[in-house]
Backbone:
């Protein structure tokens, strides 16, 4: 699993979604008690290795290790616990941050074929929740849980980034790639369809 985390990080770094040491990924190792492997803090994601991960508990604390988990580890654990996700990815792609800036109460997506890649039908109306940024993972976790919709495996953190989850890292990646496209379309067509998309 740790090698898979490293490979996925390198992929995202090459896409420009994990610049420098930003972003983090996690995968669930067991459910009871909840344990996740999460990328460590302060490592260049384009150069990360299988050694650069640490096991955390349900509160985001390292288990039997002196390695420092990513600052957002607690939110990864909260998402895994509440949503039942097998993997959580957090990147700093630009389109989700810009979309959250334009639609701070949630980004409405509808009538777009790419919604199928996000796990929804193209005719469905999907609202991607947006929460205010905070350095307090308990506060972010509470905000996530308050607006959690089991049918929407994503969360936008204003002026920060996006979290997407799935059964495993591959499903989470596919959902993230499709969501990034959807949000980029939404942002780039905002002026064209102001009445419909506002």
Residues:
């Amino acid at each position: 699993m740790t090698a898979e985390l490293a490979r996925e990080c390198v992929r995202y770094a090459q896409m420009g979604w994990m610049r420098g040491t930003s972003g983090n990924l996690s995968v669930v190792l067991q459910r009871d008690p909840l344990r996740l492997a999460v990328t460590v803090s302060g490592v260049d994601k384009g150069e990360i290795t299988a050694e650069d991960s640490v096991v955390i508990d349900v509160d985001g604390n390292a288990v039997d290790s002196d390695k420092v988990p990513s600052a957002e580890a607690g939110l990864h654990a909260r998402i895994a616990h509440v949503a039942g996700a097998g993997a959580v990815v957090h990147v700093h792609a630009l389109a989700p941050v810009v979309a959250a800036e334009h639609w701070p109460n949630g980004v409405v997506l509808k009538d777009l074929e790419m919604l199928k890649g996000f796990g929804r039908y193209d005719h469905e109306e999907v609202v991607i929740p947006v929460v205010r940024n905070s350095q307090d993972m308990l506060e972010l976790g509470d905000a996530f849980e308050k607006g959690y919709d089991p049918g929407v495996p994503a969360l936008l953190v204003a002026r920060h980034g996006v979290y997407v989850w799935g059964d495993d890292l591959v499903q989470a990646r596919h959902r993230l790639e499709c969501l990034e496209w959807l949000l980029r379309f939404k942002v780039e067509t905002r002026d064209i369809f102001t009445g419909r998309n506002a």
